[in-house]
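User: Reviewer 2 asked us to show a designed sequence for the structure in our supplementary figure. I'm pasting the structure tokens here. Could you produce the per-position amino acids so we can include them in the response letter?
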């Protein structure tokens, strides 16, 4: 006899995203039982439940996970976008006070409440594309007070929307102007003051570093990673976006959850990922917006069975896109990924990139009931057709958020 559930989703065609081709293949009409926010039953027979929702044959997927965003910021860079299209070089824009430091100034001037309010419309864009979990990085404050403010603003989003927010400290994003020419001193501040405070107040679960010629070098990156590990935080890396410095291999050596961007990654770096099961997170929005030509090593990632995630990289300077399904389309059209690879990239592999693969990203008994119900007939539609609304409802921890 079937156990009793709080909620039953009946007549669902489930795309479970478990391993193997069956995880991508829609199931026959079945029934999902949910109790206390968890999936407790998957059955071909109707379930006894306090409440029932008829999916009417619609596709049900795990809630999508955007595992790399810079959602919290103030100010706009639309004027810079226009200037660049008119031929003004970036160096001139930066000299005029533009670039990342313009976002830093605006973010420092905003209150925590203002930062949360500004982020809500961007978050709403993601939610409309089926997102139930979003990772949010700091990195536009670059002082103790402002990095803390950003992380608190990110966490406050959960009070305004049905969504899970995972926070990442990215204080090592850029060199603040007051530390010009003193990068080592700034890294000391990050390691000895910011990371301990963030860990003490449980404001982030991970620490990220922009390891690049225009960011921080390998030695500085390793210093931050070691401090993160010492304080019980996991690590992630912005690596190999513009050059091959070896940041991805370093991230893997420290047991990193993911290495992100990785356009310039070589086979040695791919092998490092495969040995530690670190996720390769691709950010096609930034690749597209910056008109990059160096593609990430997709065939090597496949060959060495490295899990691939896809994320928006939502940010004001290089990826102003609040649409995860658009990133899936770009993953296919720009990088040659398959629709199945992109769907895994925003579900099971994205969960792995956030250290959540034991509870999110798949439809399995015991997993959290974070689900998306779609008016679609085939899973390839998520990365194929863009712009037409298909999401019927989202469930976050078993609670409905109708569209």
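Assistant: Here is a per-position design you can include in the supplement:
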């Amino acid at each position: 006899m079937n156990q009793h559930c709080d909620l039953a989703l009946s007549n669902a065609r489930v795309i479970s995203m478990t391993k193997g081709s069956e995880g991508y293949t829609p199931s026959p009409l079945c029934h999902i039982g949910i109790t206390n926010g968890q999936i407790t039953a998957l059955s071909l027979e109707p379930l006894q439940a306090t409440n029932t929702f008829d999916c009417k044959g619609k596709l049900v997927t795990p809630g999508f996970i955007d595992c790399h965003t810079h959602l919290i910021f103030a100010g706009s860079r639309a004027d810079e976008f226009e200037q660049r299209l008119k031929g003004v070089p970036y160096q001139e824009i930066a000299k005029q006070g533009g670039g990342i430091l313009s976002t830093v100034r605006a973010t420092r001037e905003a209150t925590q409440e203002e930062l949360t309010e500004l982020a809500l419309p961007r978050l709403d864009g993601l939610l409309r594309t089926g997102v139930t979990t979003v990772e949010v990085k700091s990195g536009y404050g670059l002082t103790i007070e402002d990095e803390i403010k950003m992380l608190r603003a990110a966490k406050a989003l959960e009070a305004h929307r049905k969504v899970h927010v995972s926070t990442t400290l990215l204080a090592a994003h850029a060199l603040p102007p007051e530390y010009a020419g003193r990068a080592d001193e700034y890294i000391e501040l990050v390691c000895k003051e910011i990371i301990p405070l963030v860990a003490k107040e449980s404001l982030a679960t991970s620490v990220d570093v922009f390891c690049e010629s225009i960011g921080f070098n390998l030695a500085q990156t390793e210093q931050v990673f070691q401090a993160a590990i010492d304080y019980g935080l996991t690590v992630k890396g912005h690596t190999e976006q513009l050059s091959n410095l070896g940041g991805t291999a370093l991230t893997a050596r420290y047991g990193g959850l993911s290495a992100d961007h990785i356009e310039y990654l070589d086979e040695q770096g791919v092998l490092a990922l495969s040995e530690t099961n670190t996720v390769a997170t691709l950010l096609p929005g930034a690749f597209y917006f910056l008109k990059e030509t160096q593609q990430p090593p997709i065939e090597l990632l496949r060959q060495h069975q490295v899990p691939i995630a896809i994320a928006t990289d939502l940010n004001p300077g290089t990826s102003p896109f609040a649409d995860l399904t658009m990133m899936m389309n770009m993953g296919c059209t720009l990088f040659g990924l398959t629709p199945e690879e992109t769907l895994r990239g925003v579900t099971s592999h994205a969960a792995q990139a956030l250290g959540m693969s034991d509870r999110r990203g798949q439809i399995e008994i015991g997993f959290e009931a974070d689900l998306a119900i779609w008016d679609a007939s085939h899973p390839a539609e998520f990365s194929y057709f863009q712009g037409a609304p298909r999401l019927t409802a989202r469930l976050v921890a078993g609670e409905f958020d109708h569209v």
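For the response letter, you might also mention the following. Residues 76 and 316 are 7 Å apart (CA to CA). The radius of gyration is 21 Å.
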